[in-house]
Amino acid sequence: MRENNFRRKDFELAYAREMRRNPTKAERCLWQALRGKRLGVRFRRQQPIGSFVVDFYCSRARLVIELDGDQHGAAEIMNDDEERTHWLRNRGYRVIRFWNGEVENQSESVLARIRRELVEVGVLPSGGYAARPTPENLSAGATRFSDPPSKGG
Protein backbone atom coordinates (compact mmCIF):
# COMPACT_ATOMS: atom_id res chain seq x y z
CA MET A 1 0.00 0.00 0.00
CA ARG A 2 1.42 3.35 -0.95
CA GLU A 3 1.51 6.52 1.09
CA ASN A 4 0.64 9.63 -0.87
CA ASN A 5 2.06 12.35 1.39
CA PHE A 6 -1.27 14.22 1.37
CA ARG A 7 -1.12 14.90 -2.38
CA ARG A 8 -4.00 13.66 -4.42
CA LYS A 9 -3.36 12.00 -7.72
CA ASP A 10 -5.59 12.95 -10.61
CA PHE A 11 -7.01 9.43 -10.85
CA GLU A 12 -7.94 9.44 -7.14
CA LEU A 13 -9.87 12.68 -7.52
CA ALA A 14 -11.52 11.48 -10.74
CA TYR A 15 -12.53 8.21 -9.07
CA ALA A 16 -14.01 10.05 -6.07
CA ARG A 17 -15.94 12.39 -8.38
CA GLU A 18 -17.27 9.45 -10.39
CA MET A 19 -18.39 7.70 -7.20
CA ARG A 20 -20.21 10.88 -6.09
CA ARG A 21 -21.99 11.06 -9.46
CA ASN A 22 -23.20 7.45 -9.30
CA PRO A 23 -24.17 6.64 -5.71
CA THR A 24 -25.92 3.45 -4.71
CA LYS A 25 -29.46 3.64 -3.33
CA ALA A 26 -28.12 3.21 0.21
CA GLU A 27 -25.53 5.97 -0.30
CA ARG A 28 -28.22 8.36 -1.56
CA CYS A 29 -30.43 7.49 1.40
CA LEU A 30 -27.71 8.03 4.01
CA TRP A 31 -26.44 11.17 2.31
CA GLN A 32 -29.89 12.74 2.65
CA ALA A 33 -29.60 12.27 6.40
CA LEU A 34 -25.99 13.47 6.71
CA ARG A 35 -25.71 16.39 4.27
CA GLY A 36 -25.93 20.00 5.32
CA LYS A 37 -24.90 19.32 8.95
CA ARG A 38 -28.23 17.61 9.60
CA LEU A 39 -26.67 15.66 12.45
CA GLY A 40 -24.86 18.74 13.72
CA VAL A 41 -21.51 18.15 12.00
CA ARG A 42 -20.28 18.22 8.43
CA PHE A 43 -19.86 15.01 6.47
CA ARG A 44 -18.21 14.57 3.10
CA ARG A 45 -19.05 11.77 0.71
CA GLN A 46 -16.61 9.75 -1.37
CA GLN A 47 -13.66 11.33 0.39
CA PRO A 48 -10.10 10.28 -0.59
CA ILE A 49 -8.02 9.24 2.43
CA GLY A 50 -4.62 7.84 1.60
CA SER A 51 -5.05 5.52 -1.35
CA PHE A 52 -8.71 4.86 -0.49
CA VAL A 53 -11.96 6.64 -1.19
CA VAL A 54 -14.26 6.25 1.81
CA ASP A 55 -18.04 6.47 1.47
CA PHE A 56 -18.62 9.16 4.15
CA TYR A 57 -16.22 11.10 6.33
CA CYS A 58 -16.59 13.55 9.23
CA SER A 59 -13.22 15.26 9.71
CA ARG A 60 -14.15 16.80 13.05
CA ALA A 61 -14.74 13.34 14.54
CA ARG A 62 -12.25 11.50 12.26
CA LEU A 63 -15.21 9.20 11.59
CA VAL A 64 -15.37 7.05 8.46
CA ILE A 65 -18.65 5.41 7.48
CA GLU A 66 -18.51 2.59 4.96
CA LEU A 67 -21.52 1.00 3.28
CA ASP A 68 -21.20 -2.58 2.09
CA GLY A 69 -23.29 -4.20 -0.62
CA ASP A 70 -23.77 -7.90 -1.31
CA GLN A 71 -20.37 -8.17 -3.01
CA HIS A 72 -18.69 -7.44 0.34
CA GLY A 73 -19.76 -10.88 1.56
CA ALA A 74 -17.16 -12.54 -0.70
CA ALA A 75 -14.06 -13.72 1.16
CA GLU A 76 -11.56 -11.76 -0.94
CA ILE A 77 -13.48 -8.50 -0.62
CA MET A 78 -14.00 -9.08 3.12
CA ASN A 79 -10.21 -9.40 3.49
CA ASP A 80 -9.72 -6.17 1.53
CA ASP A 81 -12.27 -4.44 3.76
CA GLU A 82 -10.47 -5.67 6.90
CA GLU A 83 -7.11 -4.41 5.59
CA ARG A 84 -8.65 -1.05 4.70
CA THR A 85 -10.30 -0.74 8.13
CA HIS A 86 -7.05 -1.73 9.85
CA TRP A 87 -5.09 0.85 7.81
CA LEU A 88 -7.57 3.61 8.68
CA ARG A 89 -7.74 2.73 12.39
CA ASN A 90 -3.95 2.64 12.64
CA ARG A 91 -3.98 6.26 11.46
CA GLY A 92 -6.48 7.38 14.08
CA TYR A 93 -9.74 7.13 12.13
CA ARG A 94 -12.85 5.59 13.65
CA VAL A 95 -14.55 3.26 11.17
CA ILE A 96 -18.10 1.98 11.25
CA ARG A 97 -19.61 -0.23 8.58
CA PHE A 98 -23.21 -0.87 7.60
CA TRP A 99 -24.78 -3.20 5.08
CA ASN A 100 -26.76 -1.41 2.38
CA GLY A 101 -29.88 -3.20 3.57
CA GLU A 102 -29.45 -1.75 7.07
CA VAL A 103 -29.35 1.78 5.68
CA GLU A 104 -32.35 1.19 3.43
CA ASN A 105 -34.53 -0.71 5.94
CA GLN A 106 -33.34 0.31 9.42
CA SER A 107 -32.36 3.94 8.93
CA GLU A 108 -33.20 5.05 12.48
CA SER A 109 -30.87 2.48 14.05
CA VAL A 110 -28.11 3.41 11.58
CA LEU A 111 -28.46 7.10 12.43
CA ALA A 112 -28.59 6.31 16.14
CA ARG A 113 -25.29 4.42 15.84
CA ILE A 114 -23.70 7.34 13.99
CA ARG A 115 -24.98 9.78 16.65
CA ARG A 116 -23.54 7.56 19.42
CA GLU A 117 -20.13 7.65 17.73
CA LEU A 118 -20.30 11.45 17.42
CA VAL A 119 -21.29 11.80 21.08
CA GLU A 120 -18.57 9.35 22.14
CA VAL A 121 -15.81 11.39 20.49
CA GLY A 122 -17.25 14.59 21.96
CA VAL A 123 -18.32 16.44 18.81
CA LEU A 124 -22.01 16.29 19.81
CA PRO A 125 -23.46 16.78 23.27
CA SER A 126 -25.24 13.78 24.70
CA GLY A 127 -28.72 13.77 23.21
CA GLY A 128 -28.11 16.96 21.23
CA TYR A 129 -28.06 17.16 17.46
CA ALA A 130 -29.27 19.45 14.73
CA ALA A 131 -32.19 17.58 13.20
CA ARG A 132 -33.50 14.06 13.31
CA PRO A 133 -34.52 12.43 10.04
CA THR A 134 -37.59 10.24 10.16
CA PRO A 135 -37.64 6.81 8.50
CA GLU A 136 -40.41 8.01 6.16
CA ASN A 137 -38.28 10.93 4.98
CA LEU A 138 -35.27 8.73 4.37
CA SER A 139 -37.12 6.05 2.44
CA ALA A 140 -38.83 8.69 0.30
CA GLY A 141 -35.52 10.44 -0.35
CA ALA A 142 -36.90 13.70 0.99
CA THR A 143 -34.57 16.55 1.85
CA ARG A 144 -36.69 18.05 4.65
CA PHE A 145 -36.61 16.52 8.09
CA SER A 146 -38.58 16.69 11.30
CA ASP A 147 -37.63 19.02 14.07
CA PRO A 148 -35.24 17.68 16.70
CA PRO A 149 -36.90 16.16 19.77
CA SER A 150 -37.97 18.77 22.30
CA LYS A 151 -36.19 18.88 25.62
CA GLY A 152 -38.18 17.98 28.66
CA GLY A 153 -40.89 15.98 27.04
Description:
There is one protein chain. The chain has 153 residues and is an alpha+beta fold. The protein is 42% helix and 16% strand. The chain contains six helices and four strands, in the order ααβββαβααα. The protein has helices at 10-21, 25-34, 75-90, 100-105, 107-120, 135-140; strands at 44-49, 52-58, 63-68, 94-99. Strands 1-2-3-4 form a four-stranded mixed sheet, sandwiched between helices. The longest helix is centred in the middle third of the chain and has 16 residues, at 75-90. The chain is globular and about 40 Å long. The model is unreliable at 130-134 and 136-153 (pLDDT under 50).
What percentage of residues falls in helices of 4 or more residues? 40-55%
Strand content: 15-25%
Q: How many β-strand runs?
A: 4
Topology as a string of helices (H) and strands (E): HHEEEHEHHH
> Given the structure, what is the number of helices?
6
Which runs of at least 5 residues are low in confidence (pLDDT < 50)? 130-134, 136-153
The biggest beta sheet is recorded as: 4 strands, mixed
What's the end-to-end separation, in Å?
A: 52 Å
Average pLDDT: 77
> What is the subunit organization of this protein?
single chain
Structural class: alpha+beta
Order of strands in the sheet with most strands: 1-2-3-4
Give the radius of gyration.
Answer: 16 Å
Describe the global form: globular
